[in-house]
From TrEMBL:
GO terms for molecular function: ATP binding; ATP hydrolysis activity; branched-chain amino acid transmembrane transporter activity. This is ABC transporter ATP-binding protein. The lineage of its organism: Bacteria, Bacillati, Actinomycetota, Actinomycetes, Kitasatosporales. It holds the Pfam family ABC_tran. CDD domains: ABC_TM1139_LivF_branched (cd03224). It comes from Streptomyces flaveus. Belongs to the ABC transporter superfamily. GO terms for biological process: L-amino acid transport. Residues 21-241 form the ABC transporter domain.
Amino acid sequence: MSTSAPDRPGSAAEASAEPLIATRGLSAGYGTQPVVRDLDIEVRPGEVVALLGPNGAGKTTTLRVLAGDLAPMSGEVRWLGGAGRAPLHRRARQGLAYVGERAVFTRLDVAENLRVGRVETARALELFPELEKRLRTGAGMLSGGEQQMLSLARALCRSPRLLLADELSLGLAPLVVERLLRAVREAADRGLGALLVEQHVRKVLDIADRVYVLRRGRIEMTGTPRELRENLDAVESSYLARPGTAASM
Ligand SMILES: Nc1ncnc2c1ncn2[C@@H]1O[C@H](COP(=O)(O)OP(=O)(O)OP(=O)(O)O)[C@@H](O)[C@H]1O
């Protein structure tokens, strides 16, 4: 399977835009041992790209090195066309949003979380109206889904160019997962580029333009959701399934 034109209508023009982020021959890891090798990954404005793979494949490591949180061992990461090793805080100022698991300040309430994130409350509530009744609730008291809505609101309402999201939907109910993924899709339709690490394979394929499948630190498959679906049974049974979660995919 190879990379080909995205199979979502309207994304052909975006596919010709310059990548927001691109790696060439990237290897990264911890200590002296690379856990991801020879990665060629790119994300362009307006596209949602899914990064899939089994536990320990190196998905989080990949996001961390793209975010500037972990230095490459070899190869390069080009962010906005430049190959410099800008750290995460500088990339964040330049429009990179990184959402890890439950990225909220649990001791602050929802309104304070938005304020600290320099996000207008009204804008966040436009995106997720269900947060309105929780504005004065401590973020640590929110449900998992509400916490992720808050994390995503904080990221998206600052109009980033690129969103890197690590298991946005971990442990959440299917309807909440769909809600979060739809918010990302809508932001991408307005020009955001997004790279999503996601265990809900079928749900993310519904909104993605392209997919990379990582296995043992290498990209083993890349293509459109349509191409991946044709191989989905093989993909799931061979290495995407997590014990106990195959049904959710
Ligand atoms: N800070 C760290 N120090 C040393 N090794 C690490 C560190 N973080 C991750 N690893 C190792 O790197 C490998 C890849 O981990 P990573 O978290 O990138 O995989 P993943 O695909 O995101 O997995 P999962 O789906 O389980 O979250 C694993 O073997 C893991 O043990």
